[in-house]
2-oxoglutarate dehydrogenase, mitochondrial
Amino acid sequence: MALSGFYRKLATQVTGRLRYVSPLCLTATEKVLHTSAVAGAIPDPKPVPLPKLKDSFLDGTSSTYLEELEERYRADPSSVDKTWASFFNSLEQGVAPEAVAEAYHAYEQGSKVSPLSAAAVSNQTIQESQRLLLLVNGHFMANLDPLGLDKRPMPIELDPALYGFSDKDLDREFFLGTWNMKGFLSEERPIRTLREVLQRLREAYCGTIGYEYMHIPDREHCNWLRDRIETAEEFKYTPERKLQILDRLAWSEMFESFLANKFAAAKRFGLEGCETLIPGMKALIDRSTEQGVESIVMGMPHRGRLNVLANVVRKPLRQIFSEFAGVTPESGGGEWSGTGDVKYHLGTSYDRPTTSGKRVHLSLLANPSHLEAVDPVLVGKVRAKQYYSDDASRDRNMGILLHGDGSFSGQGVVYETLDMSALPDYTVGGVIHIVVNNQVAFTTDPRKSRSSPYCTDVAKSLNAPILHVNGDDVEAVTRACELAGEWRQRWKSDVVVDIVCYRRYGHNEIDEPSFTQPLMYKKIKKLENVYKIYQKQLLEEGIVKQEDLKQLQDHVSGIMGAEFEAARTYKPEAKDWLSSYWSGYNSPSQMSRIRNTGMPLGVLKEVGYALTNVPEGFTLHKGVKRVYEQRRQMIDTGEGIDWGTAEALAFGTLLSEGNHVRLSGQDVERGTFSHRHAVVHDQVTGESFTPLSHVFSGQKPGQFTVSNSSLSEFGILGFELGYALENPNSLVLWEAQFGDFANGAQVIFDQFMSSGETKWLRQNGLTGPEHSSARLERYLQMVDENPYEVPKVDESKWFSGGHLGGQIQKINWQIANCTTPANYFHLLRRQIHRQFRKPLIVMSPKNLLRHPQAKSGLWEFDEIPDDKGIQGVRFKRLIMDESASDRHPHPPKEEGFKRLVFCSGKLYYELKAGREKAGTEKEVALVRLEQLAPFPFDLVMRELRRYPNAEILWAQEEPMNMGAYFHVAQRIKTCMSEENRPIPMQLQYAGRPPCASTATGFGKVHAQEQAALVQAAVEV
């Protein structure tokens, strides 16, 4: 074995006994101190003597041999090889073994310095290594603030005096080892003074980029970064690259000034003060594309959005200028026309070339001004792109997220999104985060908006490298962005670029920032913009001349002027509001036929058997085994299908038709109430198995995904919404652990699910099952349906269902509360078997999962043809009283009934039991509204005609101010008006009185309240 290899391994074994690795390890200084060691470690107070080391560190050489070798040396130093003699002599003199190893390695590499001499010099610093290592935190001293307002004193931790060093130590020599050989210091001299080392460290770490990566515990990751930071020379761009950067900077700056001149009174949330973002992003895209990226999804807030749309994504300038002028698309011709949104919320997509000659698909997600809410949406969309393009290595599809400094540190969804970065079913192989750090959040000073030195400190929890960069150094911004792209492609993990800049104007262009930041804005008014700064730099370097700058200025101005003129006559074309995956799907103005959702009995049985199969020898838990045996029996007999089995059949049949099914949320694999068991675990080996991943031969890996999520609602629901945006041929579901947990995701419900189609022309079929206390009223309140207007119904098309398409297509989303497993089965399948997509909220039950009466026969899932005047098997928006046949469109009148009770969900079964107890089966009819939105006006009016003499009552469990009462009351009264029934001032109600809480916390009180409301509903 070569001595150099031996010594490296020896040093590693010795220092491998260290108990703890400092978070400040793996910097350049570790090469000074002990290159082979795990730097920054705290030594074991009782280190094992060198001769007692295991023989594993030396190939073929036992510890016994070493002991004998040492004994021979001590008896007669000349009896051993001179290298061993030097080694043992060094140890006797107190020189650390790792220093000896490093010295010999350097000597074998050509160093002219005696190994023992070099080791002795290095040993001077070994005793001080822990103290000196702490000095390498250069980002604290980097020149990051273009305003020069950050007057924080140098941290005491960076003062050499704190660690016992004084001026006289600056000229002491240190052995540099292989650190020097990498070229960090020039001339490859292995011995350097501390003064030289510190100066070179300042040059590398204390310029206009502050590299923050010492918190990363992975040595290889840190070494990779260090090798790209600690180069022999400063990173320099060629004149050609500098001219390219200048051109990109010109477009960035001149776009903002052009808008400011042409639309002086308009809000645009301009990029002035961070114009370097555009050259940085374009360099990032170029570098990423060179390394294999083919598609990039971007998400960002409003700051600088228009500039990014124009100069990065390349949205046509005439279209942007037209939107400023208020031109709106013409409706008609099948085109969808919604409410639209402000111009700095809109997104777009574009295929653009890059400097490498490759093309990349760029898309910028539309999103509201809810700051960081788009973060998980982007990650979900990227993950879906990776699935559909078979990008398992995550090389070809990437996400870039832009942030503000205040929101990155202040919004909890940022951490929720970061926390997904390494989760198996949520990772996208790293997201590149760019923070436009204008050092003020609207009007709030950073000192009052965060508790950490940097706005990016939250990213340290994920061990992401953070590149702080001065926003007035365009080359540094470009370099940082390129390095971020390289990191993401190499390590498939998140990275942050923190562009420290400023905001030249207020929060918007008509805001007055000096109200709250007078000193900052006095400074800003005196600053030249970065475009002029860079022009001067290139003039001084002789790269450009004044005439070159004028030519560039005229070129950009000419194009913008021509585009502005073209905007005057620009007519927006039909929106490309669906990607290629969505072609053929109808807009709300295009009628879609209602389709049956039943499946042939043979397919149902085949799928049913598959979802109860486990590998031979797989040891199920006895409780799960009982569940699977019961499911098999349900399939065999065709009777008693329960909720969990019906759901599994829906998933399995959709999979068999080639669709993708993805279910996520907290504890969804088993199900919060142990009803699903989609993933089972071997009780002996601990291995897991997912039957629905093996429904048919050749099933694509990941075609069925069920995944327990992190304990997050906002972030995970946003992720799944982004996932569902990508492709309509997928059933994407999120399930809240309990209904009230969904409250934590309210921003996604409010800003994306309920309004995304009308604002941004983006359909979405995301489905959200929820459990008890789900605050049904909140979702119903957001339904954009007119309660006073009955949709036109063509009863001649009753059996085809064609008349229903228009109503459900025009509404923003659907709300359902099912009472039977079969209806839940059809509801899920209906999400896919349509020519359009709508978000669906399902009030999933707890009580009905095992309720003895909440069962369905397999015939209710079976495919039934329409050839005998019988409606095909599909979702029932309303279930008639069991005394009638809901297969007939015109059931006979029931004039003897005194009361017609409308209800929804599990309460039906309690009302039914109460009615039996009261003996009012022939007087009180119970009708279930399975779909609350869109409201089934046609079916409710049918029931009113069927019970002409009955009083109308709504029953619910929730307090009056919650639940569906206020939603259905006016709609039922509208139906009564259409049927010429007397309209009461207030619709009769059986339920709890208004209350601040969803329910009492006392079981006995709850039971009394429940009995009272049931009695009030069924007794006449």
Observations:
- The chain has four domains: 3-229, 239-332+339-564, 601-849, 895-928+935-1018.
- The chain has a mean pLDDT of 81.
- DSSP finds 34 helices and 26 strands in the chain.
